[in-house]
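Quick illustration, no need to memorize.
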Amino acid sequence: MKRVEWVDEQGKKHASLVQDDILQPVDEGVPLEPPDVERLDWEAIKRDLHNELFHRGLIDWTSVQALGNGLQAAILAALHRKLQDLYREHLQK
């Protein structure tokens, strides 16, 4: 078996384990990919991100600069758990 990688029409990178005699990257074999992020509830993530920014007082560029890693923390708070749950679901397949 060998690993093949390719980029689809939308620019997404893919990889699979395929038999050694396969010459072109194809959508076959054993997928080696993260879960499909399209399955995330992006509307809920946007709402949660807005609320995190609000609660942390990140309302303008000055507050973003003053609060150091507050922006990164807000993004992680809004996205991290939902992405972890998606990985857990992906693992169970």
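The mean pLDDT is 91.
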